[in-house]
Amino acid sequence: xxxxxxxxxxxxxxxxxxxxxxxxxxxxxxxxxxxxxxxxxxxxxxxxxxxxxxxxxxxxxxxxxxxxxxxxxxxxxxxxxxxxxxxxxxxxxxxxxxxxxxxxxxxxxxxxxxxxxxxxxxxxxxxxxxxxxxxxxxxxxxxxxxxxxxxxxxxxxxxxxxxxxxxxxxxxxxxxxxxxxxxxxxxxxxxxxxxxxxxxxxxxxxxxxxxxxxxxxxxxxxxxxxxxxxxxxxxxxxxxxxxxxxxxxxxxxxxxxxxxxxxxxxxxxxxxxxxxxxxxxxxxxxxxxxxxxxxxxxxxxxxxxxxxxxxxxxxxxxxxxxxxxxxxxxxxxxxxxxxxxxxxxxxxxxxxxxxxxxxxxxxxxxxxxxxxxxxxxxxxxxxxxxxxxxxxxxxxxxx
Length: 399
Hints:
The chain is an all-beta fold.
């Protein structure tokens, strides 16, 4: 079966992956990825795609890590070490400077104006004082059915996480390995879960509307976005499947991460370096715009001026698709595609908008322990060692 053609381009004849998976394999392979081992090798293939070639390891610093002293400097990076139980503080010029234990297999993280980071781990949401570099608390999940605390791509526990504009609540998408996930609301003052709301399957990403009245949970394995009213906890499900849903859990053609467009609050969801779904969460209607990277895509972020950055993880089919990249898309739809060395997962941008930091952790095989630092003006890149399978990333700064 051939993939539908992206708007404005000719048919490339790429095969839709994973449609022939049986029920037994679906129970173990629930998405677009392969389950990785702790050393970056694959435990098994998913979605029928050829496994990614292992990327070269990031260079290690020649000198020992400097001892932390005083307040964490502005501009320091914080990454979630999905291959460990820590977050790592990274000097964007020199590499890792410190780490803090937060809980098994941290995935996403978000940092408030008060300098506190909220980290979605397999065990609960960790609260970290980034100024003093210490864990303050671990808020356990209220969701049932998470199973034993483990690592790995399909582990139960927190995935996407977001902070309300006023800083009073944190919203975390919780993966339930046996079925649909939940959105847990945490009061940042009391550090207690105040609501648990049903959402889609494997909530890769969580975003909040500009006015804080709605939360958007992107359900990777259910091809949807769940809109949650933050006052009533009422929900609306919106299917997001520009290629259809054939292949189910084994399909590669699913939503992963979203960004809220600053100009109008619409959600931007990239697919395969071919299609950008522009979703109006109020009406449920969407439009599809052409993209040009021609590669499987994961992490996204939008800058205040409307520039969209999208991480290309690499090809589904190396004979047909392009390699890893970072797409820089202006608000008027013009794209520049910057090649990257090896798979990547998520992206953050420096406060001045000049530099992007792209994590090499990745949710399937081929990940590496570092960050690509990208000069957005020139497209120059350099690889920086950072943590263990880093996924989520944030740039620390004072209010």
